[in-house]
Amino acid sequence: MSEQLATVVFTNFKGGSAKTTSSVHFAQYLARAGYRVLLIDLDSQASATAQFGIDPSREVGLENSFAAWTMAREEGRDLPAASICQKTYWPSIDLVPGGAVLAQAEESLGRRSGNGKVEDILYFDELSSFLNSVDDSYDIAVVDTRPDVNILMTIALHAATGLVVPTRATMTDLASTGEFFAHLASYVADFRDAFGSSLDTQFTKVMVTAYDPTDRSQEALVSLIRERFGDAVLPGEFLHSRIMGTAGFGKETLYEYEPSTDRAAYNRVLASANCINQAIEQELQRVWGRGQDADSARSPEPRK
């Protein structure tokens, strides 16, 4: 069975929601399951890029970031999309790195959106066009976005098969998540009025991150989040643990770290990550029409 490349976008308005941590862990979960993954870093802070051992300040520029694609399109030049998809030390994960240079991508798209040319009105499909050019090489694209309203986040929305909105169990994060959904609803309405169509997103899920089950206030807020957002909230929570800090100190994820002590704590937080990631994968299985039986979710087959 052959499916179209699926794109999962991790986004929210608030920094510190574990958005990058969540997107990188999901990419690695998929790679371990046998998928061919393209991780696209559209955050100028480039934490996802740094996680894979690339220094955004010295190793990422106009020639090897998404800015290369937007500039080439603005100038009418042909640029093979695959030329900016870099190999990583994970055999099944390629990366489009991010960095400060993404400001040039924002400026390029901004110029196109305001120049009045008919052919540039559809600038918001730029990420979709890029992904269509590499469709045969990957099963799933995972996109990490900047935590605010910006053009790169907007083009990611238009490319998304699914949205994942990470949030911590705090009142500030809950308010920010509410604001994100209000913005999304307003943008979709305005876009429909202007173009007579909507986004093609197949699912939107809220992910509770950095959860401490011993914190009664967080427990109450998770109940509130589930009450407010209902079935849009992913089952389970991505647990908080000092293991995350220990692994992060060596720039390792849970899928790379090998604990020397307290394996029980490591196993708990790893199980929480797997539960969350499996639930997102099941949404993709549903979009692809494969069903959601547990065995296929645990042992997926990559796209043929």
Topology:
Blueprint: E1 6-10, H1 19-32, E2 37-42, H2 47-51, H3 56-59, H4 66-75, E3 86-87, E4 93-96, H5 102-113, H6 126-133, E5 140-145, H7 151-159, E6 162-168, H8 171-195, E7 203-209, H9 216-229, H10 242-249, H11 263-288, H12 294-298
Parallel strand pairs: 1-5, 1-6, 2-4, 2-5, 6-7
Antiparallel strand pairs: 3-4
Helix pairs in contact: 1-11, 4-5, 6-7
Features:
304 residues, Rossmann fold, 7 strands, disordered C terminus
Your description of this structure?
The protein is of the alpha/beta class. 46% of the residues lie in helices and 12% in strands. It is built from 12 helices and 7 strands. The protein has helices at 19-32, 47-51, 56-59, 66-75, 102-113, 126-133, 151-159, 171-195, 216-229, 242-249, 263-288, 294-298, and strands at 6-10, 37-42, 86-87, 93-96, 140-145, 162-168, 203-209. Strand 3 and strand 4 (93-96) form a beta hairpin. Helix 1 (19-32) crosses helix 11 (263-288), helix 4 (66-75) runs parallel beside helix 5 (102-113) and helix 6 (126-133) crosses helix 7 (151-159). The N and C termini lie close together (6 Å).
